[in-house]
């Protein structure tokens, strides 16, 4: 059976928490993620899932906005595929599905952040045509 890609309904958003927890810093707990996702779905956020025979094996958040430098855009967030499903073309299929979906919603550009130390992820995105125009800086308050 082929993989299924679909938007996760808001009332099922907590199903992504176990996957996102796997890629989160140890200081971020399941409870914190649950609360954050409940709030995120109220803020121009959608989440797409990858399913294998009904089992959620991958996710990506989609933050929709309009930016002065890119027009209508989407920022991919917490892109994750279970390790046992990696390196077989699924990531490319997932990204293609996302690109087609966000184009159908009028997006002109996709943005994302990749951790500096995650070179394999950066290489994957660059191979797909993403470029590095700058740095994403943060400051905890």
Question: In short, what is this structure?
Answer:
This protein has helices spanning 17-23, 30-40, 90-104, 119-127; strands spanning 4-7, 45-52, 55-67, 71-81, 109-112. Helix 1 (17-23) packs across helix 2. Helix 3 (90-104) links the parallel strand 4 (71-81) and strand 5.
Task: Please give the count of helices.
Answer: 4
Order of helices and strands: EHHEEEHEH
The residue-averaged pLDDT reads 94
In order across it, which strands form the biggest sheet?
Answer: 1-2-3-4-5
Top CATH class:
Alpha Beta
Identify the CATH architecture: 3-Layer(aba) Sandwich
**What is the strand tally?**
5
CATH superfamily: Gcn5-related N-acetyltransferase (GNAT)
- Tally of individual domains: 1
